[in-house]
Design a protein that fits this description.
Layout: H1 2-15, H2 19-34, E1 51-52, E2 57-58, H3 65-80, H4 85-102, E3 103-105, E4 110-112, H5 124-141, H6 147-158, H7 180-197
Antiparallel strand pairs: 1-2, 3-4
């Protein structure tokens, strides 16, 4: 995730005309591509360390939606800046990973699995970040296969917004806290969805 954030920064500087930043961005894109989760059919990423949620310990390199979204968004930035088709190919496949491997619905609820692919506890910022990636892929790369899932997920999580404008982190019993950090992710993702799909 950190490599993805640095890549986005250097791509922005490169687009502004900084040749040295373009070279750094190219190296970071290569590095990010090399850091994908091992032994996975699709492009996805996890943290390089084990990490603890309130409910479980997630193993090192286990793919997760948030890290995958940050990596794919950075690779899309790199592709749009002319740093290679491999960036688009990996980002598009990461979108297919979200839509095919992580999307779930039980009728009323729709979500992306997080923090692990087999987890069905609904987390709003993960939902909306994933939906925003799929909508951006539809706009910039014609990858429309995930739009239906993205809109179902986004509508469900948007509908869980409280009257004061906040969201609980998730629906689980241990996820009922509210913070500006995750609400900010939700708002930025909703803005991206609206821009990318013209909603």
């Amino acid at each position: 995730k950190a490599t993805a954030l640095f890549l986005r920064f250097y791509v922005k500087r490169a687009v502004g005309g900084d040749a040295a930043s373009r070279a750094v961005a190219a190296r970071l894109a290569d590095r990010l591509l090399s850091l994908r989760s091992p032994a996975q059919e699709r492009w996805c990423w996890g943290y390089s360390f084990p990490w603890q949620t309130r409910r479980e310990l997630v193993p090192r390199s286990s793919p997760n939606l948030v890290t995958t979204v940050f990596a794919a968004q950075a690779l899309l930035d790199a592709w749009e800046a002319g740093l290679g088709e491999r960036c688009l190919e990996a980002a598009a496949d990461a979108g297919r990973y979200l839509a095919s491997d992580l999307f779930w619905s039980d009728g009323e609820r729709a979500a992306f699995a997080y923090p692990r692919p087999d987890n069905r506890v609904l987390v709003h910022n993960a939902n909306l970040l994933g939906a925003a990636l799929l909508c951006r892929l539809a706009r910039v790369a014609g990858e429309r296969g995930g739009v239906g899932a993205a809109l179902r997920v986004a509508r469900y999580s948007a509908g869980c917004q409280a009257a004061d404008g906040s969201w609980a982190y998730g629906l689980g019993a241990t996820q009922q806290w509210v913070d500006s950090f995750h609400t900010g992710y939700n708002l930025c993702a909703l803005r991206s969805i609206a821009r990318d799909l013209g909603t």
